[in-house]
Design brief:
Blueprint (H helix, E strand, L loop, with lengths): L1 H27 L15 E5 L13 H12 L2 E4 L16 H6 L4 E3 L4 E3 L2 E3 L1
Parallel strand pairs: 1-2, 1-3
Antiparallel strand pairs: 4-5
């Protein structure tokens, strides 16, 4: 009798452990994925031009990260590098007429500089 109880407890314990091992990765790997399908009714048009960079290859495209963040906020209609023909790298180089024709009143320009082993934006 003692052996049967011990074996049934062991079987129950083993079954529960097996179920946890099977189910836990599914629960643990659940990921939050949110996609904005509609923005604000009056999304602000903004142009994000590629940032001026040094002659070295940067690990990430800073202007694309900024454009993605603005677009994903849902508050902006972003004109990125694919929608633009002019790519000013300084405020003085911006052609107001060009961006007015696109109905864009806001333009993001910038540059990335290498400072030692870091980057300054």
């Amino acid at each position: 009798m003692y052996i049967n109880i011990k074996l049934s407890q062991r079987w129950i314990f083993s079954s529960l452990f097996f179920m946890m091992v099977i189910c836990l990765p599914t629960i643990a790997s659940a990921m939050l994925s949110m996609e904005l399908t509609r923005g604000v009714s009056g999304a602000i048009p903004i142009a994000v031009v590629p940032f001026a960079t040094p002659d070295v290859q940067l690990p990430q495209d800073v202007s694309q990260i900024i454009a993605n963040d603005l677009q994903n906020s849902g508050r902006f209609k972003v004109y990125g590098r694919n929608a633009l023909n002019q790519f000013p790298s300084h405020v003085n180089a911006i052609s107001p007429e060009y961006f007015r024709r696109l109905n864009v009143n806001n333009v993001v320009v910038g540059k990335v500089e290498v400072v030692g082993d870091r980057y300054q934006v």
